[in-house]
Structure formats: structure tokens, C-alpha cells
Design brief:
The protein is globular, with a radius of gyration of 24 Å. With 444 residues, the protein is α+β, with helices and mostly antiparallel strands. The longest helix is centred in the first third of the chain and has 40 residues, at 111-150. It is 45% helix and 11% strand. Helix 3 (111-150) crosses helix 5. The chain is built from 14 helices and 11 strands. The chain has 3 domains: 1-72, no CATH class; 121-354, Hypothetical protein af1432 (Orthogonal Bundle); 362-442, no CATH class. A 5-stranded antiparallel sheet has the order 9-8-7-6-10, with no helix packed on it. It has a 4-stranded antiparallel sheet with strand order 1-4-2-3. A two-stranded antiparallel ribbon has the order 5-11. It has helices at 45-54, 87-108, 111-150, 155-174, 191-208, 213-224, 235-239, 245-252, 254-265, 270-278, 299-313, 326-337, 344-354, 422-428; strands at 11-12, 23-26, 39-41, 59-61, 176-183, 362-365, 370-375, 384-387, 400-401, 411-415, 435-442.
Amino acid sequence: MSSPSKSENPVPLGNSQLRIGVYVTIDRPWLDHPFLRTRFLITSEKQLKDLMAMGAEGVSWVPALSDVEPTPPPVEGVDPAAPRSDDHKQMLVVTRDIIGDAADEESTVNPAILQSKRREEKARRQRLLVAAARREWERAGGLVKGVFSSMATRPREAGQQLASLAASAVELLQSGEGILQLMEKQQGESLQYHAINCMTMAALVGREMGLDDAQLRDLSLGALAHDIGKVMVQPYILKLAERTQPEEKAYRAHCDAGVELARSSGSFSDAALAIIRDHHEALDGSGFPARRRGDAISQMARIVGVVNRYDRLCGPESPDGVPMTPSDALRKLWREERNTRLDEKVLSALVKVLGVYPPGTIVELSDGNVALVVSTSSNPMRPRVLVHNPDVLKIDAEPIALEDAPKELTIRKALKPTDLRPGTMLWLSPRERLSCFFTVTPKG
């Protein structure tokens, strides 16, 4: 049986045991707590204060994802504030738990075995972080779907929920190294996941471009709500591949309609409203609704314009009638729309965020295997991939971090779905719409 310090299962704990470095799970309704996530590492005093204020009911910790153990529960009859002669011993125990055992192991275990164990531990931790991100992504999708449907009738409540979601996403992103992660989902989901895709990519691009926390919150909120005006457009118009002039006019009205809905909520700054208004404008003045050009379009609206265009090209709304591969979509934007419709600096930042092979790209490896890119990494040429293996179910297959793999294993080229054999295509089952969220490796 695994030791408690390595358990992946949540363990209940008391309010007084919370501390920075403990990975917690919250089993309570959305409105009963102020957090975007129900599973996260406590990294700030604010998180700790908010957790303590809400009480310990439904709060557990996950030993395998925690950097430290919780504070021991108070002993009955002992004042926890009273000085203890064994405090230094407790500190030594905690310190040994964190670094002592690793140091002992490093001095006695074969280096090759130790390196292999470290890779296994890193992969296991990554699996848990991805699973946690997927749960929060699904939860955020449900929230956004409900908020969009209620925006016209309850704008203040809806606006507050969107603002809270965007602020929590920025807090999550700023807590560590953000990695773009491909998410699996069922078919038939559209507007809310496009909104979350744009918020996720915009926040990562904004951070890459040096925006501060306040700007990132405005950017994330504007990106999340950029299409909110579409709730005022007749659904059949949104689904048309080609529109008559009156239908196109009704479609383009979603930008100004979105601004009015967002303004009525009272939760959007002028910068966030400008994103909703201008996300379809173009540098050369060929966009809509007002044909703004150049510096008349804010930097944040340019960011959302780029990520919105990229996500649309990769989805069923692609002008070609079928979704483009992520690498083809990036290539199209860079070759055909850079410095005409789209800002080159923003496009460059998006390329850095997505990597050379963005999540959702099908690739051929140097050993001849076919794989699906499932997340970015610190090396833009060596993302994490899921290698086609017909001997196991896709759900049981283990992604490979190419940045940790032997240097000889590289990506040879990107593939199109039409390049694949039917069996390989069925196993990889790339989605019609790619959806992404970020996993976050805590700082330190």
C-alpha cells in the first residue's frame, strides 16, 4: 500500500490545518466558495484567508500534489498558541520529509534509476494536474453556458459571475508556469468553449506580452465575453455558411449588442468593453463594425482578434468549410494576415504560446510513430504527445514528454487527418473543435 505522503486520494482536514503549500480539494457547490477551481495548490495568503473564512466543511487535501503536509491538528487540552519545546524537532521532521529523504535517496540509489524515478514522479504529477484542470474546465464551461443564457435577463448577476471567473483564471495563471493543455469533450458544445478557448489563449498571450495583473483581468474578461452579443442574434443566422446582406448585418450587430449587454452588467471596464466592440476590427480597416484601423484598435482588442481568428479557423466555422489543423491555421495567419489584418507582435506571442506544434496537431515522430500533441512545454519543438498504440485503449495510453525523452526522438513533420489510416484516425479521434485550458505547474 502507498504511504500517506504519496496518496492520490483526497484526505479530509480541519480548518486549522490549512497552510501554504497544501493542495486542497473543495466538495461544495459553486456559490459556496469564491474559487474558480475546486482543486488547487494554496500559494498565497489571500487563498489561505478565503479558505479559512469559508470553513473546513468539504475541504480535503491531496498528499501526492502537496508541497508540504498540513499543520498537525491541535491536541485536546493543549493551547495551540503556547510555545512548545519540540517546535524545532517538528521543523526538522517537516524539512526531512521535503528534502531529507530525497537527499538520502540520491546518495544511495543508482543515478540512472533515480532519473527514471524522477521522470515517473513528474509524469504522475502531470496526470493529476491535467485531471484537475479538466474538471475545472468542464465546470467553467457549464457556468459560462448558464451565464450566457441569463445575460439578457439578469445582467448584473451574470456579469459578476463572468468577472469572477476571469479574475480566478488570471490568479491561477499567475500562480505558476502556465501550459496549454488539449481538452477532450463531447460533440455539440460550441459557444461556451470557444469563449473559454479565447480567454485561455488571450491570457497566455497577454502574459507573454508583459501585461500586468489588472490588464490581464480586463483582457480575460473581454475575451471570455467577446461573443456575448450573439445571444441576441437568431440562432439560424449564426449557423449559416453564407448570409444574405440583411443576415450579415444582423450577424455583425453582435459586437455592439455585446457592448450594451456587458455595460448593463456594471462589471466591465472601458478596456474590456472595447475588446467586445472591436474584436472583429482589422489593422487595415477591413473589419467591422466601425472599420477602425491601426492604433484606433486597442492592444487587448488586437490580442482577442488574433486568438478568436485562430480558434475559428480550427473549428467548424472555418472559411474552408472544414476545420484547419492548428499548424495550418497558424501558417495561414502568418502568411496571409500578418500586418494587414492582424498585429505581428500579437501573432509572434501566440506562436510562442502555442509552440511550433500546437495542441491538437497530429505529428509523425522520427521513429515512424504517429502522435497527437496534447500540451505545450518549455521547449517549443518538444511538446507532450500521445503516441498511437493500437494495443491499448486511448484512455489508458500515457502521454510522452518529448522534452524529457532521448534527444534522438523528435517530431519529423505535422500531418493532416487525410494522411492517416482509418484505424489510426479512429484511435486518435481528433475533435472537430479543439478545446484548450491551462495546467499550471506551481512556482518553485
